[in-house]
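sry for the spam today, last one i promise. struct tokens for design, 284 residues
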């Protein structure tokens, strides 16, 4: 027994050394894996930062009402009902051409003594918002091809940013009605809450560009009203317009291109300005 003790001790030492070596090897392997993961994340971050600095990202600014969801008539009816609740007789025909503007623009155009930002004018605007959320929202339908177009834009690696004159409360209802809420939940969103002045002023478009870190010459806006075009052009952004918002081609003059709806644009994508932007390089 006494003579076997040194051998046993040596075997124990060997076992401990083997375990230590295995532990060190596992640690090295894990460390290498962590290092590779961190390096990959760092490279991606550097790439994003470089893209930001060079303005190389290509982006799409998305209007929602009339562009991704058929809602412009509903907004006009909501305005008529909201004004009537406060004793103002405003017709559908009067307010419909103004859809695409925010409340700050619509209210004083319908009643010059009112402001959409305070007093009775704000109460009217708030009433219209509630009507969209609680009455009209559930009956809205997506514009043809909205979801498929957003999927295509993401596939082409465009940076997407919402640029809507709607309020943030309305927007969640509208995006759900357009059936694209899940596709845009991680994208930057700009609403009338982000600016003091809505379309046709350029403020909303400028805010969207800033939020998405996009240069105006590397972005295109998708819209459906003359006010989208005026706002975007004033901010140096070209517009692709859709007829599904209810405005005719003469009213959409100034757009880079005009299509019936998102499905029409998607069907002609390979010949569209979007394809040209998607294919453009940093040097262009």
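last one done:
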């Amino acid at each position: 027994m006494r003579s076997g003790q040194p051998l046993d001790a040596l075997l124990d030492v060997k076992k401990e050394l083997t375990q230590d070596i295995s532990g060190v090897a596992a640690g090295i392997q894990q460390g290498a894996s962590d290092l590779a993961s961190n390096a990959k994340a760092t490279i991606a971050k550097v790439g994003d930062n470089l893209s930001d600095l060079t303005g190389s990202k290509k982006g799409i600014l998305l209007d929602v009402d009339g562009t991704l969801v058929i809602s412009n008539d509903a907004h006009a009816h909501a305005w008529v009902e909201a004004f009537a609740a406060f004793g103002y007789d405003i017709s559908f025909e009067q307010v419909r051409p103004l859809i695409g503007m925010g409340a700050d623009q619509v209210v004083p155009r319908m009643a010059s003594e009112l402001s959409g930002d305070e007093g009775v004018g704000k109460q009217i605007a708030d009433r219209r918002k509630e009507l969209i959320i609680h009455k009209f929202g559930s009956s809205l339908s997506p514009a043809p091809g909205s979801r498929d177009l957003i999927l295509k834009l993401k596939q082409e690696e465009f940076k997407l940013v919402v640029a809507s004159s709607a309020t943030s409360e309305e927007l969640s209802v509208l995006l759900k009605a357009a059936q694209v809420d899940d596709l845009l939940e991680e994208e930057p969103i700009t609403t009338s809450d982000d600016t003091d002045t809505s379309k046709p002023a350029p403020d909303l478009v400028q805010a969207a560009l800033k939020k998405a870190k996009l240069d105006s010459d590397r972005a295109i806006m998708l819209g459906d009203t003359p006010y989208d075009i005026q706002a975007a052009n004033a901010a140096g952004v070209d517009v692709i317009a859709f007829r599904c918002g209810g405005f005719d081609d003469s009213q959409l003059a100034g757009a880079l291109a005009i299509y019936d709806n998102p499905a029409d644009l998607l069907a002609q994508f390979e010949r569209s300005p979007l394809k040209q932007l998607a294919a453009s390089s940093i040097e262009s």
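The CA atoms of residues 60 and 160 lie 5 Å apart. ok im logging off now
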